[in-house]
Amino acid sequence: MIRPRTILISITSITTLGWSVFYYHHHRLLTLYPTLPIPQYLSLTGRNDKPYTTDKWAKCDAGDSWAIKVPKSVMMGNSDDTTMTTTTTTESSDNDLGIRWNKSFWGSSPLSIEGTLFGFIKGFLGYKTDEGSSSKEMSLEKGDFEIGKTVLNGLFTIESINYIPISSITNQGQNIRSSQITYRWGDLTPAVKSSILVRGGYHTLSILPLNSISREVLKQDKDEGENENDQNDYLYLIFTAQGVYKYPLSSSSSLTSSSIQQQPKRSIEMVKGMNILDKIFAEFHREYSRILFDLAIKRMGLYGKFEIVNQW
Q: Which sequence ranges are marked TM in the entry (predicted)?
C-alpha cells in the first residue's frame, strides 16, 4: 500500500520538476529574445497608405516586438533557385526572404492547432462566412500571400504587403527582396468598458537591413570601429505586435498624423490602469510570442547563427 507521505513527496517532486523545466525554458527564451519597443519605422499608427479592411490604420497605443540579427550571407546561403512574382501577390520563393519568414512563422504547430480550434469554434457556433470566403484562406503550402487573404481559418487577415529591397546580389538573375506583411485580427474599435485588455490589433513580420530601422539610433549605438558596410552585412528578423487597448494613450482629437508618428511607442507593460488579469494576459501573450518566434527561427534553420538584439 502506498503511503500518503510517498504520494505527497511524489507530487511535490513532480511539481518542482515541472516549474524547473518551465523556468528554464522561460529564462532561455527571455535571454534569446528580449522584449523590445516597436521601432518607429514599423509603427502603423499614422501611416499614410490604406489598409485592406478599414479606411485607415487603427491607432495603436502600445506594442511589443522581438528581433534577431542574422548575417546577410547566412540568409543568402539558405536561398534556393526559385522565381519572383508580381507586386500584388507573392509565391513561395526564396528570392523573397520575407515569404520564407512568414511561412516559417505561420507553419508552426501551435498556430496550426490555434487555426484548427478557431475553425471548429466558428463551425460550432454557426458562424456564417461570406460566399466564396473559403477561397480567401491562404495556403501555406503554396505560399500565396496576397492582400485580403486570411490565415488560420480567418483569424487573421493580410492588410498590407510592402516590398523591401535586400541585396543587389541576384539569384537566377533576379534581386533579393523581402515581403513585409502586416496582419489584422479582432476588433479595432477601442472600448474602455471592455473586459479584454486587447480587443484587436496588427502583427507584422519583417526582414529588414539594419540601417532601415533608424540611421540616427544606429549611429549612436554602433560599436567603436563599426562602419556602414558592417550595417549592410546584417539583417533584422522582426515580429511586432501592436494592439488597440481598452486604455487609450490619449483621447485628444488634436493629434495629427505626424505628431502621432513622433510619439514614442510604449511597451504594453507601460499601459496604465491594468488590473491583475490584464497583466497576466499581457505576460501570457509575451511568452506565447517568444515561443512562436523561437519555433519560426528553428524552422528557418537559424539556430546558432544569429545574434541577440537587446535594443534598437
A: 7-25
Residues 6 or more apart whose CB falls under 8 angstroms from that of 23 comprise: none
| 239 close to 293: Cβ distance less than 8 angstroms | yes
Pick from 85, 57, 66: nearest CA to 202: 57
Encode pLDDT of 131-172 as tens digits: 444 458 988 888 889 999 999 999 999 999 999 887 655 555
Hey, what's the cell of 175? Answer: 534581386
Residues in the chain, how many?
312
Whether 198 and 185 have beta carbons less than 8 Å apart is answered as no
Q: Grid coordinates 483569424 are at which residue?
A: 155
3-state helix, strand, coil split of the chain in percent (to 5) is 35, 25, 40
**Residue 38 in contact with residue 265, Cβ under 8 Å?**
yes
Cα–Cα distance, 71 to 307 (Å, whole number): 9
pLDDT at 44: 87
Antiparallel, parallel or unpaired: β 174-186 and 156-171: antiparallel
Burial label for 231, CB within 10 Å (0-12, 13-18, 19+), is middle
DSSP 278: H
C-beta separation of 261 from 214 below 8 A? no
Rounded to whole angstroms, how far apart are CA atoms 187 and 205?
Answer: 20
pTM comes to 0.78
d(CA 74, CA 77): 5
130/276 Cα distance (integer angstroms): 38
